[in-house]
Amino acid sequence: MLLLSALLTFILHASKVRGLDNGLAITPQMGWNTYNHFGCDISETSILNTAKAMVANNLTKLGYEYVLIDDCWQAPARDPNTGAPVANSDKFPRGIKALADDVHALGMKVGQLHVTISFGWLTSRGDPSQKFGIYSNAGKLTCGSRFGSLGHEEIDAKTYAEWGVDYLKYDNCYNEGQAGTPKLSFDRFAAMSYALNATGRPILYSVCNWGEDGPWNFAPTIANSWRISGDIMDNFGRFDERCPCTSALDCKLPGFNCAMARIIDFAAPLGQKARQGAWNDLDMLEIGNGGMTYDEYVSHFTFWSILKSPLILGNDITNMSPETLEIITNKAIIDINQDPAASPATRRWKRSVPGGDLSLWSGSLVNYRFIFALLNTSPKSQTVDIDFTDVFVDQGTVYQHQPYALSDLWQKDASGNWGKPLGTFQGSLSKVVIGSHQTKIWMAVPAP
Ligand SMILES: *[C@@H]1O[C@H](CO)[C@@H](O)[C@H](O)[C@H]1NC(C)=O
Ligand SMILES: *[C@@H]1O[C@H](CO)[C@@H](O)[C@H](O)[C@H]1NC(C)=O
């Protein structure tokens, strides 16, 4: 077993340069976070109930393994004697460690003792399938004005490790002006990365600095993921002055209230920077929170998946509509997100139509499979011809001209699995009718 493990590790390291070297987020992380639905109104009970509902709804089996507490878990002050972080005793009467233990045990209870070979890590320890995460801030205070971790990185990381924390989301408020150049941001976020590493416990490190100073350039070796924009708003495309930038590149004020489709635009050029262990984070999902239609949430889930963003649910898992559950459990879409090739889709063209635009995206998966997707942000239904010279522009003429078996990944096949076979196509897919704010996505497999 050990030998096999060593061999796998060797093969992987020999074949591909990874991001942060902590063995985590080899594919984008998946889970749930308190913030988008509960905000600061969190407690041990609501978090534990969510963790149970994740198991009951089979979300854990699909890969949603992290249960994450966002801001506002902290007591009014650190321990006056040790300087260690302390949890709010009204919200977490038994402390964070007891909650982390319960979440870990929940994974064990459902009997998901499994052997996981995830590229170099050979685990046969019966790992708990649910993991636990927490939040802090690379500043004096958190965004919700609780104590931050700037200058307290070591004691905080050590305490998190003692509590059994598997994941840290690390925010960017009240940063005392230590931003504005990549070096300033790097130093501030690297301090926590090194402190986490020094604990010896693998802790997934999710940097949330809203794209400031280009984290896709400075963060891949210190973080498993980095936010690329201001906070998401549960809205398809509305412009809000508090999210003023038109591009994530050189954005001087990331802000917040960034509509979902605007974040897709921000992400478009950044796919080239993602790799195993190091991902562009398009922010947590809003599916099920009520601000978008079914078609809009399908667009949201599809793009977060194909751009290889972490998939962190943000809705009330204990109370979901069948539509919400259906969207977040589309296994064909999740499989694209988790594909070992780790290759984000690229936008091939964008065309203006009245009130919005149409765009074509495509990407490749392992085993000579491909996907392409069409997005319509306009208020009207559109009819589009998709030319395979655009879809397979990276693969060249042989691929552009060969026939493909296509399936539609938002329809089900005869046995109820996602991906309805549409037949064989060569050269183009013509007269595709796509509704307002809709996304259509196809899998293409070379046909004989
Ligand atoms: C710490 O960093 C070293 C060197 O990059 C790496 O080999 C090790 O796995 C890391 N440990 C943890 C716990 O992240
Ligand atoms: C979860 O999976 C089990 C077993 O496969 C199945 O019986 C159950 O209906 C599923 N629950 C949901 C909510 O899909």
Report on the architecture of this protein:
The chain is α/β, with parallel strands linked by helices and 448 residues long. Helices cover 27% and strands 24% of the residues. The chain contains 13 helices and 20 strands. The strands form 5 sheets. It has an 8-stranded parallel sheet with strand order 11-8-7-6-5-2-1-12. Strands 13-14-15-20-17-18 form a 6-stranded antiparallel sheet, covered by helices on one side. Strands 3-4 form a two-stranded antiparallel sheet. Helix 5 (153-163) links the parallel strand 5 (131-137) and strand 6. Helix 3 (44-56) runs parallel beside helix 4, helix 5 (153-163) crosses helix 6 (182-198) and helix 9 packs parallel to helix 11 (331-337). The chain is globular. The two termini are 39 Å apart. Mean pLDDT is 93; it is low at 1-15 and 109-128. Bound molecules: 2-acetamido-2-deoxy-beta-D-glucopyranose (2 copies). One 2-acetamido-2-deoxy-beta-D-glucopyranose binds at residues 57-58.
